[in-house]
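STRUCTURE REQUEST FORM
Protein name: Geranylgeranyl pyrophosphate synthase
Source organism: Streptomyces antimycoticus
Requested output: structure tokens
Priority: standard
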Amino acid sequence: MQPTVRDRALADGLRAAQAAVDEGLLKATKSDVPFITEAARELTRTAGRRLRPLLVLLAARFGDPGAPGVVPAAVVVELTHLATHYHDGVRDEATVRRGAPCPDAHWDNTVAVLIGDFLFARASHILADLGPRAVRLQAEAFRRQVTGQILETTGSREDRDPVEHHLEVLASRTGSLTAVSGRLGALTSGADASAVDALARYGERLGVASHLADELATLTARRPTLPVLLLAGAAERTGRGDLADPGDRAGRGDLADRELYELLTGPADRPGYAEAVARLRTHPVLDLAREETARQADAARVALSTLPDCPARSALESLCETVMRRADTAPPPGPDAPTAPSSCG
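Status: completed
Returned output:
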């Protein structure tokens, strides 16, 4: 996901900074043990979007983008993202994540977990040079990520709205790192406190919106990802089109939705699975997911409203528009549509 950058000076500056981030990632993933270097660099070659470093670099435009801590901060957030990618691939037993092979598709789970640990260690090493405040911010983001993973694993309480639970999981697992990306970029550039806070709020909302859009986009795949199934299976609509009472949601809702959820969370070769996927793609609750994506993207735009009107702000606003286009153009193909790369978190 790339922003629309119409200002030539900003575009040139971002390209140079992104090249410096790539160089920093290569340096950070180098080890005296060749196998560690090979395994750690696997995702740096295939991960693609580099959204979090980009948020750092754009946030730094509200201070001094050439400040010495900006590029290291961008390297830290990407290393953290890649480390969670290694760990999540093991936890989810996934083979593909956002179009790239999950690490345990190449190596066993033990190696994938240890390489994730190695990347966390390298991120911590770089972070230490950015000062105590940066360390605390990253530690808090990490705490939230782990909390989100636990909440996702344990599921919602019997008295909790499953949709609200899912959104809390996304805010913790995804929003926490995009939030700290905006915050660290502004902080290391010397931006004022109000800009630091605004960019953190923007980052969190954009992260949640982006993840929801990715979940909707997986509806083009033969096997959609589990998170959107949790969202789709967790809410039913009444005859008026409103969400039913939380006590009547999936797992506790009507028989048809419970059966749909059970089919979708079972093996893909299970009888009736293809029909269940087709039903999911036309389920009215997907409108809820698109509405929530729009709400999160709008909140991200509002967070930027206190910042100076400049090319960097326009670029950040364009990311909100990109997210909405991704959510709105996710087509509901039939069950025999070509398989698209699955996103698993």
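Reviewer notes: Strands lie at 96-97, 100-101. The domain at 8-97+107-241+251-325 is CATH 1.10.600.10 (Farnesyl Diphosphate Synthase).
Form closed.
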